[in-house]
Write a structure and sequence with these properties.
This protein is α/β, with parallel strands linked by helices. It has helices at residues 19-31, 52-65, 75-79, 82-88, 111-117, 135-150, and strands spanning 8-11, 35-38, 69-71, 157-166, 171-173, 176-178, 183-193. It folds into 2 domains: 8-72, no CATH class; 79-193, no CATH class. The strands form 3 sheets. The chain has a 3-stranded parallel β-sheet with strand order 1-2-3, covered by helices on one side. It has a two-stranded antiparallel ribbon with strand order 4-7. The radius of gyration is 19 Å and the shape is globular.
Length: 194
Amino acid sequence: MLTGDADMVLYAAAANLRPLEAVEDMAAILETGKNVVSCSVVPLVFPDAVDAAFTEPLREAARAGGASFFTTGIDTGFANDVLPLVLSGVSRVVESVRVSEISNYATYPDKSAVYENLGFGKPPEVTPFAATTGVFTFGWGPVLHQLAAGLGVQIDHIDERVDRVAAAESFDTPTGHIAAGTIAAMRSTLTGYV
């Protein structure tokens, strides 16, 4: 791929647990002069709010290769950021913006994401990757900054909250068993203050 004659490479590798490695991969592609479109390192939808350790290797590689880089998606990249900004255009005054995403992971095809990364079916005292402080702010914090920038304001600080609920009784889902007393639901909330 790196030696081929493609103009553009779509980089869609799983990167939730390896974002810096994914940045290295994409930088290597950019250095060869190939443009990169990606949905892998989600925070890069708004690079102005992302740590330079993630953005600078891509900027430098794009300059060196004379290439461009674009991150997009649906979860971030449209529904959580672009669409609310578009909808704000029909309002005279915007006092607050609330974006909600509700997912039923009972049929989610990636079992490791459901049971390991999100911690469903685990005892409440086990803190999975997704419930670790800072994970949601890293992934979706740039969305709040993008919304604020689009509305002409600046975020002063972001509060992150993750609530998890244990199952009152055991039940089965298409992807596995949730025992009574283990985690069956999770809500993450990011609140940006201007």
